[in-house]
Amino acid sequence: MKNYPEILDAFALPKGERSAVPFGNGHINNTFLIRIAGTDKQYILQRINSYVFTHPKEVMENMQHVTSFLRGKIAAEGGNPDRETITLVPSRSGEAYAEDSDGQVWRVMLFVPDTFSPELPDDLGVLEECGGAFGRFARLLNDFPAASLHETIRAFHDTPARLRQLEDAVQRDPHGRLQDVAGEVAFARSRALDTCFLTDAHAAGELPLRVTHNDTKVNNVLLDKTTGKAVCVIDLDTVMPGLLAYDFGDAVRVGACSAAEDEQDLDKIHLVLPKYRAFSCGFLSELNGMLSREELLSLEAGARLMTLENGLRFLADHLNGDIYFKIHRPGQNLDRARAQFALFRDMEKHSDEMKSILLELYNG
Ligand code: ADP
Ligand code: GN1
Ligand code: MG
Question: Residue ranges of the chain with pLDDT lower than 50?
Answer without folding.
Answer: 1
